[in-house]
Amino acid sequence: MMADIDRVLISQEGIARRVAELAAYITTDHTPPVLAEGEITIVPIMTGAMIFVSDLIRQIPLAMKIGLLTVSSYPGASVQSKGAQVLGGNIGDLTGRHVLVVDDILDSGGTLLAVMPEIKARGAASVKSCVLLRKDRVAARAIHVDYVGFEIPDEFVVGYGLDYNDYYRNLPDIVTLKIPLASV
Length: 184
Ligand code: IMP
Ligand code: MG
Known about the structure:
Structural class: alpha/beta
Radius of gyration: 16 Å
Number of helices: 4
Distance between the termini: 22 Å
Strand content: 25-35%
Largest sheet: 7 strands, mixed
Helix content: 10-25%
Shape: globular
Number of strands: 10
Oligomer: single chain
Bound molecules: inosinic acid, magnesium ion
């Protein structure tokens, strides 16, 4: 697995520093009186956001619930989005709650465009979004995101939760791969 790595784009130390900063911003913004009444529900988009969200929420000392949502846009060995599909989840009752959607990466924007209205429709008091990475693409810049960890080049990356064909999620750094990626 390590032999497949082309280059490290963001090291685990760099990720950790930025995650701590994001957690501090989110905590400030969700602490009264900045935020009106109501608790927060964190909604990580599975499976890619699982490592990011687990590091993030342990640095947010506020009462919160977690609601899981599974969205697939890169089925199997694809490196191009096939369109976001909400596959289900265990999201809980969002009525009157302040929701923070957490995703690993903003690419075409299809995932956030599919998920945000769905959460509003479930009666959330407010909905914000947080992504660890945002690709340098016109489509990605056109989407409003409340918290962005890093701006990265428009390249396919894995590690720290991000996968290729479900592999590499356990790499501690965010890296590019040197194996030829299927572009189907
Ligand atoms: P979007 O819906 O096109 O914005 O893409 C968001 C989703 O696609 C993310 O939640 C990731 O799961 C996946 N994705 C996009 N780009 C990459 C990448 O470079 N590596 C791994 N997964 C990616
Ligand atoms: Mg995803």
